[in-house]
Design brief:
The complex is a heterodimer.
Chain A: H1 17-20, H2 27-46, H3 49-74, H4 82-100, H5 104-122, H6 131-151, H7 153-156, E1 162-163, E2 167-169, E3 172-174, H8 177-199, H9 202-212, H10 214-219, H11 224-250, E4 252-253, H12 260-273, H13 278-302, H14 313-331, H15 335-348
Antiparallel strand pairs in A: 1-4, 2-3
Chain B: H1 3-34, H2 41-58, H3 63-86, H4 94-116, E1 131-134, E2 137-140, H5 141-163, H6 165-175, H7 177-182, H8 187-213, H9 222-233, H10 238-263, H11 268-283
Antiparallel strand pairs in B: 1-2
């Protein structure tokens, strides 16, 4: 019973900047994160293909959503063209693999880098534009890239689409849900850790400074144009990698998949998850992927009771996504991450949580 | 050379351009007075056209009765939308405001598809002749009417903002909300009014387009086509919106002409306005007539 170590902790007390910027602030959070990874790694052993498919979707969309969150939530820029970059990554990886025989393992990150280049090029106007004008400029790039996908047959296969080979490593093909799940899991862990690390680096802090007050940031010596374009680059890299995984998972990439609707869904993911939260990106993605599935399932269940429900479920899904975005913005603008934080805070000090 | 064809396309472009101009004006009206970018502008056209179509087919009302009913509906709809959804967004960051209107556009698009189906449905014929001959050019009657209506609307807007009391209040609010409020302008009323006017006028445009092409979900694409027009003119300039609309209308038709004659790229009609948009933003980030935003620290 000597010293302060044995007394009960009633909160977190950080005594150094280092401690303040760690990714996992407490030993408990480290254990929970590790446990979550182990649990996730066991999923393919006992979950069926349907659930694995959903989890894989959450994985690759989640990677792209984190990229968008870096751009929107951390740097304060707006992009309505994220789906186009996602699509570019998918086509690019398939193209690198089919055309140059590059192994898929290399094609995926390389596709990410090429998407970064495209994203930075598209982001050039972002150096001068803000807010609304930027939103509309990225909207234009969405349509221009979509048009490019439909037209560039050498790159995308035109309207026929492009075939993508399965992910292989040392001759082992990750060609079904059970196997591919591990690819996505590793990718998610690597990309999310990288994202969290990026945000506590010098560049990450510069992003946040640009978001919070760009004039002050500029006065402090942050090169606005550089960081705005760099933010577009980071976002596109994540989108490209996510898209590449999407392509190699489905085995087929078609231009119809990357419309403005997907861009809106990406924005919905980060708004529902929480702007400016790394973990929120994944939570929001899970919400956005599961919402239509839940609606589908309930429509199947209620199909006998309410006539005509099954036929209209496609509309209901779209309405549900739109409504979810609106309701979150009105009632919980900080998203699921905020809810999660409140819940954690409640249990951390339980039962003295007042 | 196919000059007649080109001329026909330019005339078509001008007529469609006035419609773009009208819709762009509605967009600017909302943006100027409430600082909200309405991504659901195209859905206003869609809803207006469907409601009018419903009055005219279900109850067999003539156009002169169906249109005012549609306007009444849209005015109430616009005000309700502003009160229920947009009012909580005052003071929120711009991304939230944009996303709310995008969410609205998704909901309305799905709702209209659910109620009325995905297939284009023709309006009951209003005119005796579908097209008339003007100086050797074939022009759709509905387009002629739309040209007339558009010009009337533009003149109406001009009078409204220049000479009417409410218009003056709206201009004052757009210029400085606090100052306007301190002089007794009800900002809430102005906001509601802006949404109502915008919804009504957009619905009118929707009805006109519906008469020519049939009513379908394609109408909501108008809301996206309007962006190049608005950006060209500058987001907060009503005159700019009209000019931008005309330019974009002509541009897409001329692009289509060059494409079909020489380039053979395809799909330029849809994409050319967006290329124009990017180029304009590179050269003049605040459009041709927009006010440059000067920020004080």
């Amino acid at each position: 019973m000597s010293g302060g170590h044995t007394t009960m902790r009633c909160g977190e007390f950080r005594t150094s900047y280092r401690a303040d910027t760690t990714i996992f602030p407490t030993p408990m959070s480290r254990r929970v994160a590790l446990g979550a990874v182990v649990l996730a790694a066991s999923f393919p052993l006992w979950l069926n293909a349907y659930y694995l498919n959903l989890l894989i979707q959450i994985g690759y969309y989640g990677i792209a959503a984190l990229g968008l969150n870096i751009l929107v939530g951390f740097t304060g820029q707006i992009s309505l063209g994220h789906a186009a970059f996602f699509g570019f990554g998918a086509f690019c990886s398939a193209w690198l693999n089919n055309r140059f025989g590059l192994p898929v393992v290399l094609a995926v990150p390389l596709a990410g880098l090429l998407t970064t280049a495209v994203g930075m090029f598209v982001g050039i106007p972002a150096g001068r534009l803000k807010g609304l004008y930027l939103a509309i400029a990225t909207l234009a790039s969405q349509f221009i890239l979509e048009d490019f996908f439909a037209r560039a047959e050498w790159f995308t296969g035109g309207s026929a689409g492009a075939l993508a080979q399965p992910f292989t490593l040392f001759g082992f093909a990750f060609n079904n849900d059970q196997r591919f799940f591990y690819v996505v899991l590793v990718a998610v862990i690597v990309m999310y850790l990288a994202g969290a690390n990026l945000l506590r680096s010098r560049d990450g802090r510069a992003y946040v400074a640009v978001r919070d007050h760009y004039l002050s940031a500029e006065i402090m010596g942050i090169n606005l144009t550089k960081y705005r374009i760099l933010a577009f680059g980071s976002a596109s890299f994540y989108a490209g990698v996510g898209g590449a995984l999407y392509g190699h998972y489905l085995g087929f990439v078609s231009a119809e998949g990357f419309t403005i609707l997907l861009s809106i869904q990406f924005l919905g993911m980060i708004i529902i998850g929480g702007l400016g939260s790394v973990m929120g990106s994944l939570l929001g993605t899970a919400f956005m992927v599961l919402l239509p599935e839940v609606m589908e399932a309930s429509a199947q269940g209620l199909g006998g009771v309410i006539p005509g429900l099954k036929d209209s479920v496609a509309y209901l899904k779209q309405m549900a996504i739109g409504l979810a975005i609106i309701l979150f913005l009105i009632f919980e603008p900080q998203g699921l991450a905020h809810r999660w934080k409140l819940t954690k805070a409640y249990w951390k000090l339980y039962p003295f949580s007042y | 050379m196919n000059l007649d064809f080109l001329l026909q396309l330019v005339v078509n472009g001008l007529i469609v351009g006035t419609l773009y101009g009208v819709v762009a004006m509605c967009f600017v009206l909302i943006y100027k007075s409430t600082q909200i970018v309405n991504f659901a502008q195209g859905e206003f056209l869609l809803i207006g056209a469907w409601v009018c179509w419903w009055f005219m087919t279900e109850y067999r009302l003539p156009l002169w009765a169906g249109l005012p009913l549609t306007f009444a509906f849209m005015a109430i709809f616009g005000v309700l939308l502003q009160i229920v959804v947009l009012r909580p967004m005052i003071g929120q960051p711009i991304i939230s405001v944009i996303m709310v209107t995008i969410g609205l556009s998704m909901v309305f698009q799905a709702l209209m598809g659910w109620i009325f189906g995905v297939f284009a449905k023709p309006f009951p014929p209003v005119f005796e002749h579908a097209a008339v001959n003007v100086l050797g050019l074939q022009v759709q009657s509905a387009y002629l009417m739309s040209l007339l209506i558009s010009v009337v609307i533009m003149a109406g807007f001009y009078w409204f903002f220049k000479h009417s009391r409410i218009g003056l209040a709206m201009r004052a609010t757009a210029y400085d909300q606090q100052a306007a409020q301190s002089l007794g302008v009800s900002v809430k009323q102005v906001f509601a009014m802006a949404w109502a006017i915008s919804a009504v006028v957009s619905a009118l445009a929707g009805v006109v387009v519906g008469m020519v092409n049939g009513v379908s979900s394609a109408l909501s694409f108008f809301g996206i086509k309007v962006f190049p027009a608005v950006i060209l003119g500058g987001l907060d300039s009503i005159v700019g919106a009209i000019v931008g609309g005309l330019v974009i209308g002509v541009l897409e038709n001329v692009a289509e002409y060059f494409d079909s004659q020489w380039l053979h790229i395809g799909n330029l009609y849809t994409v050319a306005p967006f290329y124009a948009l990017v180029i304009i933003l590179m050269i003049k980030p605040y459009g041709l007539f927009g006010t440059r935003n000067i920020e004080r620290i």
